[in-house]
Amino acid sequence: MRILISGFGTVGQGFAEVLMRRRDFFVGRYGKEVSIVCVMDSSTFAKDRAGIPPDDLLERKRTTGKVGTETYADSVEVMDSVDYDLLVEVSPTDIKTGGAGLKNIRHALESGKDVVTVNKGPLALNFCELVTLAKKNGCKFRFEGSVGGAMPIINLCRECLVGENVSSIRGILNGTCNFILSKMDNGQPFEQALKEAQQMGYAETDPTNDVEGYDSACKAVILANSIFGRNVAFSDVSITGITSISGEAISLAASQNMVIRLIGEVSEDRLEVSPRLIPKGHPLSINGTLNVAQIVTDLAGPITVSGRGAGRTETASAILSDLVSVMDDRKERGDRCRNP
Ligand code: HSE
To answer: Which residue of 144, 147, 202, 314 sits with most ligand 1 atoms within 8 Å of its CB, as the best mutation to test the pocket?
Structure first.
């Protein structure tokens, strides 16, 4: 498996670290290591058809701030100059245009390459186009880490709960907002709590995307399309963020044994992100940066999952799981071809 990584920020570097930590796992399972044949950051790239050791990439990024010594003007030209099997797309998300991520994913799928991504912008804006493109070109296209980071939800619903009728999903899909609201429960002002969330590296580059509910809305769109088979985009979500929630509103809720939480709700006919009153002790009343989702199914009943919605290694763990799934699939197909 030859991998091209586009984006070498927190998540890209976390993924390189995870590949090192799981070296023996890959050798044991597939008889060889995963090989990184190219990495692009925002302006430079490094490539080597023999594979680049992840620690070399990490060291160069740490000491020079860049992943490569060569610069590029067009990421597609770099992609076309490399023999790779799978694109890991983790460039900075752009929820207005899809940005470089959209261009890179499109190009990889058009070229018949498998894609694993956690990039929310392209998925929230062009989900159906990308899934159709993947099908048309016979490519695997997986994006578990785009919703809830390490919290399993997309593959859980599509694989473990495959025979269920899922009627709704309600969840806390943004760690920054949950952190702010939890801090406000303890009397901390909004601005101070936001600053802390930014220092912890949880908030988006532009935290407006968190506090106005846009990030949660992207995730709601991804769930609606991937789990409910809908054909919706970001502009279809009814969104209310948390910026107008006052300390008084939080205190009033507390006096009734409630907390206010930013909830994303998705079903066949709902697509909404809004602050809701949640009884204290309810699974959706969690504190801090955790994400949580309640999946309502017909046979299994309600299922609740929770986990870290962001973070370097945590998000990389979701990419790892998608990568293994693609590799298992290839291995199975290879075995079938050898033993018809
Ligand atoms: N800013 C996001 C959050 C990061 O706070 O949950 C993960 O998508």
So the answer is: 202
66 catalytically annotated: no
- Looking at residue 201, what is its pLDDT? 87
9 pLDDT more than 90: yes
Architecture of domain 154-308: 2-Layer Sandwich (3.30)
Ligand 1: distance of its center to the CA of 309 in Å? 6
153 lines ligand 1 (CB under 6 A): no
> Among residues 100, 18, 115, 113, which one has the least CA distance to residue 57?
18
How far, CA to CA in Å, does 50 sit from each of 16, 47, 323?
16, 9, 20
For the stretch 125-168, pLDDT in tens is 999 999 999 999 999 999 999 999 999 999 999 999 999 999 99
2-150+313-338: CATH architecture: 3-Layer(aba) Sandwich (3.40)
